[in-house]
User: Which sequence fits this backbone?
């Protein structure tokens, strides 16, 4: 008798279904040019997680319950501090690189010489509202990646391997869009693929740690929505420059450095906390 909440079969079911369904959606985007398939694609991990969770409940011999299904896919309340962290972390690792780029290339910043108050007036509201709009699609991904997959792998293979597997799989899941879908165009394909992995993998580490620490997928959904909104709907709009994707956004060297620092700090804090908790348990 084991204490696993997720069956091994359900994990394989998740990977199999998400690869097939995502492949169909990415084909519609890359080969047929159907832009409506983007939000469909982002909900494929959720669909896969829901099916995999049903498989896991059935494998355990338990009676199906809607509450257990929600629990297995990360639909749980959490401390508001994790939601706030999810909103602020991408602001840190995206804004700092953009500010460095704007400082080095003021001619590429739409608000050069404009008072800070006016900048905030123009950008603050879209920056906030866009997060909640972005949740409509980001939640679909996070139900799968961090709501189901992270806890399912973590209980079997441990934290480090879980962060490695989920982070790399999440990066590879985007590859068809990078190669054939015109996503992040503006530099060589080889550079885009390498830089994208170097940037998005640590974001996956941050999300994985948030999911494990909070016990919920909601902080990750807010982080994902905030990341997309800050980068694509705010900072990118007010930034020019043919070379900008080499420095900022999801393939920029400044962003890569900054997000790795954030991920490293979070990982070190997590390990330090874990050692303190173990020491407390040992003494008591």
Assistant:
């Amino acid at each position: 008798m084991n204490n696993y909440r997720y069956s091994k079969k359900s994990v394989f079911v998740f990977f199999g279904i998400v690869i097939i369904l995502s492949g169909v959606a990415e084909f519609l985007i890359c080969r047929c040019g159907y832009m409506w398939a983007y939000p469909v694609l982002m909900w494929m991990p959720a669909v896969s997680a829901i099916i995999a969770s049903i498989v896991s409940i059935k494998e355990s011999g338990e009676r199906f319950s809607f509450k257990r299904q929600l629990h297995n896919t990360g639909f749980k309340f959490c401390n508001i501090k994790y939601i706030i962290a999810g909103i602020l972390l991408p602001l840190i690792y995206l804004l700092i690189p953009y500010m460095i780029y704007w400082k080095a290339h003021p001619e590429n910043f739409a608000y050069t010489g404009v008072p800070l108050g006016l900048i905030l007036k123009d950008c603050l509201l879209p920056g906030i509202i866009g997060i909640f709009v972005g949740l409509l699609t980001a939640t679909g991904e996070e139900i799968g990646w961090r709501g189901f997959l992270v806890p399912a792998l973590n209980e079997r293979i441990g934290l480090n391997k879980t962060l490695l597997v989920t982070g790399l799989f999440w990066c590879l899941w985007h590859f068809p869009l990078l190669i054939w879908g015109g996503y992040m165009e503006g530099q060589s394909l080889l550079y885009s693929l390498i830089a994208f992995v170097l940037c998005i993998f640590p974001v996956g580490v941050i999300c994985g740690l948030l999911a494990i620490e909070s016990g919920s997928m909601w902080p990750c959904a807010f982080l994902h929505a905030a990341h997309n909104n800050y980068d694509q709907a705010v900072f990118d709009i007010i930034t020019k420059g043919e070379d900008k994707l080499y420095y900022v956004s999801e393939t920029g060297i400044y962003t890569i450095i900054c997000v790795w620092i954030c991920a490293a700090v979070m990982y070190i804090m997590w390990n330090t906390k874990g050692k303190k908790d173990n020491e407390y348990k040992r003494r008591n």
Residues 280-284 have pLDDT under 50 and may be disordered. The chain is about 75% helix and 0% strand. The CA atoms of residues 268 and 274 lie 10 Å apart.
